[in-house]
Design goal:
By secondary structure, the chain is of the alpha+beta class. It contains 15 helices and 17 strands. Strands 1, 2, 3, 6, 7, 8, 15 and 16 form an eight-stranded mixed β-sheet that branches.
Amino acid sequence: MRTTQSFIKRALVTAAVVLIAIAAVVTVRTVGLRFVPVAAVALIAVAAVVAVRTVRFRLEPVAVPPVSPVAVDVEAAAAHLADAISIPTVSFDDPEAADRAAFERFVAFLEASYPALHRKLARERVGPGALLYRWDGRDPSLPPVVLMAHYDVVPVQAGSEAGWTQPPFGGARADGFVWGRGALDDKAIVIALCEAVERLARADEVPDRTLYLAFGDDEEVGGRDGAARIARLLGNRGVAPELVLDEGGMVVQPGMVPGVNRPVAQIGIAEKGYLSLELAVAVTGGHSSAPPPHTAVGILASAIAALEREQMPRALRGAARQMLLAAGPAQALQSRVALANLWLTGPLVARVLSGTAEGNALVRTTTAATMFEGSPKDNVLPSRARAVVNFRILTGDTVEGVKAHVRRVIDDDRVTISACGPLPFEASPITDTSSWSYRTLRRTVLEIFPDALTVPSLLVSGTDSRYFLPYAANVLRFTPIPIGAGDVGRFHGTNERIREADLGRAVAFYLRLIRNTTGAAARGDAPAG
């Protein structure tokens, strides 16, 4: 991590200088030495523009009045999360493999644990196990708010159980953490939302703006039976939310964003699209003792190597560009020079970012070969070989554009190309950061995380919120949990856990957010910082 940050910082420092130097050389070679004074004047003008833009490149002031500390029963929230984790609501690609009885136990657990919520809010079962709660507001003219989460989890990889400090479905509480699958993704948010609404319902609070809670049961396998059905159901009823908030960017700790020595709250204003393509080769099989020059596996390997060699083009645009512009003023002077002048340094900054896996995901549609199948036996030539390549589509690229790129790069009639896996979807639209929804979410973040720098961001993975895009005015993606560099591998990995104090802050966040978005002052025109 430190090496990557150092690399990015050094490269950003030199970006503007390199481009200016190139401009000088090109100018001299083009116009000749006798026009050097003219070139010098041009370079001085460029340098002046760079300097002025750098000086003006400052953090946007966000005035958020202080709020009284939000008292939260952390013990109750942690106990409920531990109980939730102990119910193994695991999603599998094969629906028949899921333990539906566990999902029913989880639904019953919510009902027993949050009685006031279930008294005050109407609940609907949607599909096999998705839950939609509606808390009617006083003013039906106000567009509602939808807060999302999912209670299904990914399986624990076979053979990794011994690496867990606590059993993955034990719901253990130890060392100030709640441990287990779903502690971060995404049962903690289900519990935090329920804790917040339960407290408000017990106090007989009634929102002005109708509030929906949408809990999916199959997000980890695409959300087609859960969130997709909920979104269509509300859309068919004419419900047009002002704000939909789902999981997404988190509060990353100081140093995780290169050059920024304070926490950074990343609010997802867009997410990448998704496409998986199957590449297949069918040839005559046989015995491995007399192989042809290229087997089906060899042909397929060449196709994949070509795709890895000639990737989709880099582009610094959309949410990723907005993120750099928002975080740039908090960095050291050298980095600010490059980020304040992306009109000049943009191509080089994009090139630098593409040098790391994380940065590359921000500046291009990524290509990931994930599956490869050939012969079932070591001495048998395969009559058919197949591979799967997954693409995460950057804003500005399209599903059809990616398919055309794959066909052009492979350029081999022996390789058939077809879509597979979850249904593909395009990159999402970008939510306007000047919207009431974004400003209100940002204000709430700063009320709970006052030291954080809030920035718009691009979510490189997918969420259930995409199903609401046809119906909602604004879709945002944010998870109010701090994470450090060592926590990144816990998502879908070993030793997933959440600090109990951080769970308490998540409950406080949703208490404030519900009041800010659905309370009497939240009528769509209140300033939000």
